[in-house]
Design brief:
Helix content is 27%, strand content 19%. It has 5 helices and 5 strands; from the N terminus they run ααββαβαββα. It has a 5-stranded mixed sheet with strand order 2-1-3-4-5.
Length: 154
Amino acid sequence: MSGAAEGPGEAPTVADAAQEIDWAALDRAALAVRERAHAPYSAYAVGAAILVRSGRVFAGCNVENASYGLTLCAERSAIAQMVAAGERDPIALTVATIGPLLGSPCGMCRQTLAEFARDFPIRLIAAGSGGAPARTTSLAALLPDAFGAAALSR
């Protein structure tokens, strides 16, 4: 990620956008929904909160299933909430995991996020004290050269 946009008329960078986000509010939403995760098999509760351009926040948690492949990740849960509400323009995401290490969206979640935006800031946080310090990255950094609709022949 680079710093400020180079000149007049250029779009702000992801780093610029990250400075404008109320990360504390997004973090609180991700941590709160993480507490409602259904993770009886892994005990790895995850919460995600997506901020959209309209200012609304959509939160989701992981929902595990005894048939592991049917598990719904927190990030995809939040995206489903966003879409169900008629929104399609995410601009930031916080992912909260248990720690002490920071968790990052899995490949399936990264691709799902890329369906709705090429890039936006993603903040990774660990619940409780003693975890790793929060870190901000971006969708493009986590999923360079994402597969998208342009790759499909029509």
